[in-house]
Amino acid sequence: xSYTGRxxxxxxxxxxxxxxxxxxxxxxxxxxxxxxLETVGMPEKLYRKLHHExxxxxxxDRLRLVLFPYRxxxxxxxxxxxxxxxxxxxxxxxxxxxGMAVHPDGESTEITLNHVVAAYYEAAGLxxxxxxxxxxxxxxxxxxxxxxxxxxxLKLDEAMREKKVVRIYAAIxxxxxxxxxxxxxxxxxxxxxxxxxxRVSLTGQAAITHILSSEVYPKASLLQVRLETGRTHxxxxxxxxxxxxxxxxxxxxGSAVFPRQALxxxxxxFDHPLTGETLEVLxxxxxxxxxxxxxxxxxxxx
Length: 302
Prior knowledge:
Belongs to the pseudouridine synthase RluA family. The active site is at 137. There is one protein chain. The chain folds into two domains: 7-66, no CATH class; 84-301, Pseudouridine synthase, CATH 3.30.2350.10. It has seven helices and 16 strands. Strand 5 and strand 6 form a beta hairpin. It starts with 6 loop residues before the first strand and ends with a helix. It is an alpha+beta fold.
């Protein structure tokens, strides 16, 4: 379900031109509801809200929806340079640096990615809530997807639940990973002996990780990994359990040859919440991981 026609943002309104199929209907209100729910794929919850608040209007041949109302950021804007990978009126994808959490944990006062996104919105004169769709661990780098309005949030949250948001990572791990290791299907639960750790547990939540490709060197391997599920620390737990902890991941047994876990989100693929177009966002490797890979290759060539 998607909208393939022309659209534009005008203040708090989204303007669309559905065409004569709706304009010529005897009961335009009913036809509009059916079109929004079945063709555009508007979540019924949002449709009822807009209908109740008179946020659905016709102006000539244009259908207008209040999809961009004024909203508080929900978090204090705190400025820091932000690497934007993709942006339009519905979505924002930013490249998270190492050492920064996506959102506050309620205890630390450190700046988070959500603080920085709020400052980015503020500088652009955009008043909308900061809504992250997924997270990355504090020391993992790569793309984080944000929804810039409620419509996008509802559609992208649904896509996450249906496993339609594809996340592909690069991981540099210890040891020579066998080409036979292509799928890890092991449940993950909390570690009763360590509050911040997770572990493979028969009573845990289902967790599936796919290994798409590998470069194998004498003492390390570079893996391209896709998440099917999104459990806390999933890639780190699974690879450590299989005897290949991520380099630098001290929490899960990785050697201290790198100051953090050598894990980076390379690619993010998702369908645009309005148009349905599949977007692929690439995030360049951080320099520290580029340098680590070069050292591993140089060592292997000696």
